[in-house]
Design a protein that fits this description.
Shape: elongated
CATH superfamily of the largest domain: Periplasmic binding protein-like II
CATH class of the largest domain: Alpha Beta
Distance between the termini: 26 Å
Structural class: alpha/beta
Order of helices and strands: HEHEHEHHEEEHHEHEHEHEEHHHHH
Helix content: 40-55%
CATH topology of the largest domain: D-Maltodextrin-Binding Protein, domain 2
Radius of gyration: 22 Å
Number of helices: 15
Number of domains: 2
Length: 323
Amino acid sequence: MKKILLGIIPLLLAGGLYAGVKVTPLKSSIAEESFQTYIVIDALKELGYSVEPIKEVAYTVAYQTIGQNSDSDDVYFMADSWDPLQDSMFAKAGGDKKLYRKGVYVKNSAQGYLIDKKTADKYHIKYINDLKDPKIAKLFDANGDGKADLTGCNPGWGCEKVIEHQLDAFGLRNTVTDNQGQYSAIIADTITRYKQGKPILYYTWTPYWVSGILVPGKDTTWLQVTHSAHPSGKSTKLANGMDFGFNVNNQRIVANKSVATKHKDIAKLFAIMKLSVNDVSSENMLVSKGQNKNEDMKKHAKIWISQNRATFDKWIQEAKAAK
């Protein structure tokens, strides 16, 4: 009887039971972060875990939920933790004492301000600080109030705090309006203005589909800042001396701390998974063209896995070895 039971245990594990362990993926409202999340979900399923449907919540809620379950036997994770943009959220949720965040999932995610290249070249605009001049700012006035209209980002993402900080730091309050809201809607209006030949000013990040339509260097120009002014107090200057006002970010997988001891296979998986910025951008472009339903994005993840099967299988093998 003992031998029979020992033989059944591996079969139960392979069937995804894992003694009732619940794995809950958390994600922001940004559809373009679904691709990364579904790849992680598929990897977890291959390890034998049953995974709950994605819970869409605000970033702050995701961090808090993960931190509050730091000692849980269950697993809570978010595949898109922006480091260092969201470091304050990470810290408030308990930091390394309550959350597990090892490895880098997507490297070198840039962000910052851009304007259309035609206006940049004509008026020799190089810095966001140049918009302190009312005459320059008025070029980007979309509603007739004389101030530049900046396409900002959603409150709660983290980037809005940097933008608001810099409006004060660079003395832009009287000449620039930070338009916050549903990013997908306001950037759509910005693209429409560009197609109409009007000047545009906007914030964006990579990997994201916007830079596939408004191509930097061809259609648009990145603006720099004259000096670093970040809420963290840290320098944003790059090694080459350029400074775009934002740190280059890495997207990392964050989970409750207990995975490090209770689910070493998951901990290992989260530490070694890697996607290229280009792969994420390519998928995001499909989303922008209408393939934006959950089933579409699940399919995108499965296609990526099939095209990168050797890499994916290596992740699984290393994770299983850690168990």
